[in-house]
TrEMBL record:
Pfam family, one: OTCace_N
Species for this entry: Actinomadura viridis
Biological classification of the source: Bacteria, Bacillati, Actinomycetota, Actinomycetes, Streptosporangiales
Keyword Cytoplasm: yes
Protein name, per record: Ornithine carbamoyltransferase
InterPro entries, per the entry: Asp/Orn_carbamoyltranf_P-bd, Asp/Orn_carbamoylTrfase, Asp/Orn_carbamoylTrfase_sf, Asp_carbamoyltransf_Asp/Orn-bd, Orn/put_carbamltrans, OTCase_ArgI
Main location: cytoplasm
Binding-site positions, L-ornithine: 160, 224, 228-229
Top-level division of the source organism's lineage: Bacteria
Amino acid sequence: MVRHFLRDDDLTPAEQAEVLELAAVMKRDRFGYRPLEGPRTVAVLFDKPSTRTRISFAVGIAELGGHALVLDAGTSQLGRGESIADTARVLERQVGAIVWRTSAQERIEEMAAGTSVPVVNALTDLFHPCQILADLQTVAEAKGGLKGLTLAYFGDGANNMAHSYLLGCATAGMHVRIGAPAALPPEPAIVARAEEIAASTGGSVTVTSDAARAAAGADVLATDTWVSMGQEGKDTSLYEPYAVDEALLSRADGEAIVLHCLPAYRGKEISAAVLDGPRSAVWNEAENRLHAQKALLTWLLQRSEPGAESGPE
Ligand code: CP
Ligand code: NVA
């Protein structure tokens, strides 16, 4: 059965741990794994801008011995209205996997439903699951594990990063807190799904408008831009109490690390002192996109081969 990664909970807790372990192995021996030798081609499609995702998939696929076919919507027929289903049927006959950054989650679900090759979510409006794998790898490196740690996210509670932290951290058995304006909370269905996962992994979920409460004693502080792609011009004044600055960091554990998926806006969601300071893990986090995605692609392709173990029910 073909395996896709469209949202963080497409991996069970055991599977997420396997992918993260493989990512650590691939980081230690960066050029030692070439499962895409041939080369197999992976289509990497962008309906929105990208720096890190574009670079890390292109570099990672090359390091695995494969070829990355990187396409922007503006230069493909998809951007002129060709249907997702027709694109999926054309791609599956020529590429080994499809990586796609797009807007609505329904679009990537339609792509996955229409193709026999693995589809990977490289960011939608609802989730950014590849980023969370890299973030979990970064936390595990800094802290020696994940289970039982507390990650607190601040700012836009209704965006892709908040939603993916909810599902991805709950899957890892972490305590995840979202500090966000009461008027702009995460999607209730995603909070409920994260609570369901956390109940089985020993984690927990807290959504609060009290930033100080969210930060108290946390092992990891995380934030993201207040203005996601496609939201240009939005009013951000409600987010101001949720800026990750030295005052907020002082409420966290003394050894806390700080994450930001980047691009960052110093003086808005994060202060320059914190982003560029000693607790910041953001550059390692950006590098780990490479290792986590190499592991993910390798794992998905292995699991999608005929006769491979089937996935969760
Ligand atoms: N963090 C992230 O996905 O960055 P890009 O938008 O540059 O790919
Ligand atoms: N929430 C941000 C993440 C960028 C990587 C966005 O969607 O623009």
